[in-house]
């Protein structure tokens, strides 16, 4: 901790005090996430075979753009098809990095570790995004690595139309998916894990127009021979249920503070709500997403509401209201938005469509954020989207909503101090975490994750009013006021932990002395 000048320590260090009559504005709580897709190099890296330096520079540009837009989370695609965009002993390096599956980036580095470190420096959460069943994005498997599931365990995969898919009915496929996810949770400092809407594959037709059935008759026959009684469709849904539940419980057992997210197709079944028509995920991809929501098998649900607000049979507001109504366990609901349709000629959405979707989300009680697909639209910035967001719904920073069911208590308020800048003599605010006893979690284990700072909320009052900043916890000092700015009258700093739980504020009030003899932080 910095040494405070002269005899000012007693007055310059402050903790939570009685709040004055003039309250600072409440900091908005809203999840603002962006999917960063790696499959087919949609978002990152821009093409396979880039050098490590170019890959890292592209990723830093993505994170910096997210910060500029006041986003607070990145959902990073780390397993697009039984491969890895991280250093894995279970699956081969992804071809979307080097151009050849199984070949590491050159010079070798760990993209996930890099993404986590750089995201956290910027105060962004990093959620690792997995496809549990997709094995290969095309039927051309000639480039598959010797360590890929198609080579090591060909009996686990099935060809379906142009895809290679792992069979969800095989218990080893489920174990493989959970083992991969939990391995990442144990080895990396991720804030969340995330799966999307690819369960059984979306239906495809053959050349005659007939729907192709998923080729799992051998697996189903094996289930029936062992005494199984379920119909094939119910068996398929049960297979997916088992994976979702096992993922949720496996992550919770490995690290209780890591959030689990599921992003299902936006329609559970046509007629739910009554006006809705469209693909029936319950019957077509065998995903009983309503059951997962009602059972609470995730910490957040991101139904993909990928239609425009005026689409009559998929109304955004009606679908969102329905999903929130099913959320009987009170988990987070953060709908997914196909913001990238602004770039698709068939849709060419205006920026006003996205602004309106955010407005409708905020208008729905029980929905507390949005996840945008995908990063490319914010890099290309069609129709002045970024400016519209920064001047409108994302003008002010926001904290990720707290996840109190994972929390074990309220973090301690920080300690504050003031010292003069050595050159300008202007006051510099010092922020230090307050020591807290280790917290017991799980089966008698100990963790400091809950008592260590993740972010600081710094609120400063001057004659012009309050300003609010959300600052990464690594920042421990900052100017009390910029040159030429109004003199600060009061500073409040709140610690926010990894689960979004906030401490009481620590408070300093003017006068902040800056003479050579010493500085004082008012009370």
Structure commentary:
- A nine-stranded parallel beta sheet has the order 11-10-9-8-4-3-2-13-12. It has a four-stranded antiparallel beta sheet with strand order 20-19-22-23, with no helix packed on it. Strands 5-7-6 form a three-stranded antiparallel beta sheet, with no helix packed on it.
- The protein has helices at 9-12, 52-68, 95-98, 111-121, 149-152, 171-187, 217-225, 232-254, 281-284, 289-295, 316-326, 351-363, 375-380, 385-391; strands at 28-29, 31-36, 73-79, 125-130, 134-136, 157-160, 163-166, 192-195, 259-262, 300-301, 332-333, 336-337, 369-373, 398-399, 415-420, 427-432, 439-441, 445-447, 455-462, 465-472, 477-479, 490-496, 506-509.
- Mean pLDDT is 91; it is low at 1-21 and 514-523.
- α12 (351-363) links the parallel β12 (336-337) and β13 (369-373).
- It is of the alpha/beta class and 523 residues long.
- The protein has two domains: 9-26 and 405-509, Immunoglobulin-like (Sandwich); 29-396, Glycosidases (TIM Barrel), CATH 3.20.20.80.
Largest sheet: 9 strands, parallel
Total beta-strand segments: 23
Question: Which class of secondary structure composition applies to the elements?
Answer: alpha/beta
Query: What fraction, in percent, of the residue positions are helical?
Result: 25-40%
| Overall morphology | globular
| Mean pLDDT reading | 91
**In CATH, what is the class of the largest domain?**
Alpha Beta
Spell out the CATH superfamily of the largest domain: Glycosidases
Uncertain parts: 1-21, 514-523
Largest sheet: spatial strand order: 11-10-9-8-4-3-2-13-12
Give me the CATH architecture of the largest domain, please: Alpha-Beta Barrel
Distance between the termini: 20 Å
- What name is given to the CATH topology of the largest domain? TIM Barrel
Number of helices: 14
**Count of folded domains:** 2
Strand percent estimate: 15-25%
Radius of gyration: 25 Å
């Amino acid at each position: 901790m910095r040494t405070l000048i002269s005899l000012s320590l007693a007055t310059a260090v402050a903790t939570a005090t009685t709040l004055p009559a003039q309250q600072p504005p409440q900091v908005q709580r809203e999840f603002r996430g962006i999917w960063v897709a790696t499959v087919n190099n949609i978002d990152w890296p821009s093409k396979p075979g880039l050098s490590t330096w170019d890959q890292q520079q592209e990723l830093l540009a993505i994170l910096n753009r997210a910060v500029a837009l006041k986003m607070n989370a990145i959902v990073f695609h780390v397993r697009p098809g039984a491969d890895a965009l991280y250093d894995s002993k279970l699956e081969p390096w992804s071809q979307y990095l080097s151009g050849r599956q199984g070949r590491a980036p050159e010079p070798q580095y760990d993209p996930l570790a890099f993404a986590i470190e750089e995201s956290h420096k910027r105060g962004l959460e990093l959620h690792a995004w997995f496809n549990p069943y997709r094995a290969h994005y095309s039927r051309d498997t000639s480039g598959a690595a010797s360590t890929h599931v198609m080579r090591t365990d060909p009996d686990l995969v099935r060809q379906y139309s142009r895809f290679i898919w792992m069979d969800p009915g095989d218990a080893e496929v489920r174990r493989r998916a959970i083992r991969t996810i939990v391995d990442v949770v144990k080895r990396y400092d991720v804030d969340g894990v995330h799966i999307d809407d690819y369960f059984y594959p979306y239906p495809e037709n053959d050349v005659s127009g007939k729907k192709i059935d998923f080729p799992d008759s051998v697996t189903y026959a094996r289930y029936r021979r062992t005494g199984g009684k379920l119909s094939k469709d119910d068996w398929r849904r049960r297979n997916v249920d088992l994976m979702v539940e096992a993922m949720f419980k496996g992550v919770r057992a490995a690290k209780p503070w890591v959030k689990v997210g599921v992003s299902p197709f936006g329609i559970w079944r046509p007629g739910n709500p009554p006006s809705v028509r469209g693909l029936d995920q319950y019957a077509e991809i065998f995903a009983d997403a309503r059951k997962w929501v009602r059972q609470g098998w995730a910490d957040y649900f991101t139904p993909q509401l990928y239609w425009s607000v005026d689409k009559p049979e998929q109304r955004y507001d009606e679908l969102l209201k329905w999903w929130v109504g099913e959320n009987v366990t009170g988990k987070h609901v953060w709908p997914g938005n196909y913001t990238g349709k602004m770039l698709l000629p068939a849709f060419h959405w205006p920026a006003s469509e996205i602004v309106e979707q955010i407005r409708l989300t905020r208008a729905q009680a029980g929905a507390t954020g949005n996840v945008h697909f995908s990063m490319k639209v914010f890099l290309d910035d069609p129709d002045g989207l970024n400016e519209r967001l920064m001047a409108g719904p994302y003008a002010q920073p926001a904290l990720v909503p707290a996840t109190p069911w994972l929390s074990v208590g309220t973090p301690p308020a920080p300690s504050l101090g003031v010292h003069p800048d050595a050159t300008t003599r202007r006051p510099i605010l010092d922020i230090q975490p307050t020591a807290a006893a280790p917290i017991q979690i799980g089966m008698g284990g100990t963790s400091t994750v809950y008592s260590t700072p993740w972010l600081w909320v710094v609120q400063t009052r001057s004659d012009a009013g309050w300003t609010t900043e959300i600052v990464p916890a690594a920042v421990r000092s900052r100017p009390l006021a910029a040159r030429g700015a109004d003199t600060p009258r009061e500073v409040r700093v709140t610690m926010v932990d990894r689960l979004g739980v906030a401490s009481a504020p620590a408070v300093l009030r003017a006068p902040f002395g800056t003479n050579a003899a010493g500085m004082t932080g008012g009370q």
